[in-house]
Design goal:
Strand order of the largest sheet: 2-1-3-4-5
Organism: Rubrivivax gelatinosus (Rhodocyclus gelatinosus)
Keywords: Glycosyltransferase, Transferase
Strand content: 25-35%
Distance between the termini: 21 Å
GO molecular function: glycosyltransferase activity
CATH architecture: 3-Layer(aba) Sandwich
Protein name: Pyrimidine operon attenuation protein/uracil phosphoribosyltransferase
Largest sheet: 5 strands, parallel
Order of helices and strands: HEHEHEHEEEE
Radius of gyration: 15 Å
Number of helices: 4
Shape: globular
Number of domains: 1
CATH class: Alpha Beta
Structural class: alpha/beta
CATH topology: Rossmann fold
Number of strands: 7
Helix content: 25-40%
């Protein structure tokens, strides 16, 4: 059995370079809690973007909210800027079914109407259930449905991936 090894730091460097090439000058970064928020925070700093990044929670708009409730949540949405008429770059760690992205976009529109929303992800693992695609993905992999790819952040800010059996 082959064990998939992903170098999260190398993928982050690739995502940063790709984003630098396509980022509109007036865009704002909004990371989806939690892995996407970690990525957006570091991208904001490493790209030398002015201001602060935003964080969005998909919790209240999830289609499984009734079964998950708030216990599975995370930090609440925090957008330190107006999104009306802005180009928003939505950042997430792993794109799978598309349901989290759909919920995050619904939450985003609760705060205004952006000029555009562009999705960038560290890893696209396929398995889409909704017609959602990333404009930029540092890696595209195939992972069995019974496995979950999770981004972790060490105390020094470095990223690693873990592959876990899905609950």
């Amino acid at each position: 059995m082959t064990v998939l090894q992903l170098d999260a730091e190398a993928l982050y460097a690739e995502l940063r370079q790709g984003l630098r090439a396509v980022l509109p000058p007036d865009a704002v970064l909004v990371g989806i809690w939690s892995g996407g928020a970690w990525l957006a925070e570091r991208l904001q700093r490493d790209l030398g973007l002015p201001g602060a990044h935003g964080v969005i929670s998909s919790m209240l708009h999830r289609d499984d909210f009734g079964s998950r409730g708030l216990a599975a949540g995370g930090d609440p949405t925090h957008l330190p800027f107006s999104i009306d008429g802005r180009h928003v770059v939505l950042v997430d760690d792993v794109l799978y079914t598309g349901r989290t992205i759909r919920a995050a976009i619904n939450e985003l529109y609760d705060f205004g109407r952006p000029a555009s929303v562009t999705l960038v992800v560290l890893v696209d693992r396929g398995g889409r259930e909704l017609p959602i695609a990333a404009a930029l993905a540092a890696a595209r992999i195939a992972l069995p449905a019974g496995q979950r790819l999770s981004l972790a952040r060490a105390e020094d800010g470095r990223f690693t991936f873990a592959i876990e059996e899905a609950a």
